[in-house]
Design a protein that fits this description.
This protein has 118 residues and is mostly beta strands. 0% of the residues lie in helices and 44% in strands. It has no helices and 10 strands. The strands form 3 sheets. The chain has a 4-stranded antiparallel beta sheet, with no helix packed on it. It has a 4-stranded antiparallel beta sheet with strand order 7-6-4-9, with no helix packed on it. A hairpin with a 2-residue loop joins strand 1 and strand 2. The chain is elongated and about 65 Å long. The relative contact order is 0.23.
Length: 118
């Protein structure tokens, strides 16, 4: 038996865990949350030539950069809620946001076009 004291949301609990000794079950490691994948930039120079797409299906919770906003590589453009976790979708390069192709609260599929950049 092992005794632990844990705190959950400010409440303290004393927990006793029985050691059954080698049950043959290996510990479960949590799966990593999907990463927002930045698209490969297209260097054509046309308006909205760089597409910013959703790396995973989710809900748009915030539009971080409006059309016309100058952004640096890695700056968040849109924030998605994926598997109950906020995941920023970032600018793949320095540039200007040409268009926002989604709305806050909208459900999007993986690969959906969220925005374009120049």
């Amino acid at each position: 038996m092992k005794n632990y004291t844990i705190t959950v949301n400010g409440t303290v609990y004393d927990v006793t865990v029985e050691d059954k000794g080698g049950s043959g079950v290996s510990p479960v490691t949590p799966a990593a949350a999907p990463k927002a994948v930045a698209p490969t930039p297209v260097a054509t120079g046309a308006a909205g030539a760089v597409k910013i797409e959703a790396g995973a299906a989710g809900k748009v919770v915030k539009i971080a950069a409006a059309a016309g906003t100058a952004v640096k590589k890695g700056d968040p453009v849109v924030v998605l809620e994926v598997m109950k976790m906020e995941t920023p979708v970032v600018a793949p390069q320095d540039g200007t946001v040409a268009s926002i192709n989604c709305n806050e609260g909208q459900q999007v599929d993986a690969g959906a076009l969220l925005a374009t950049m120049n």
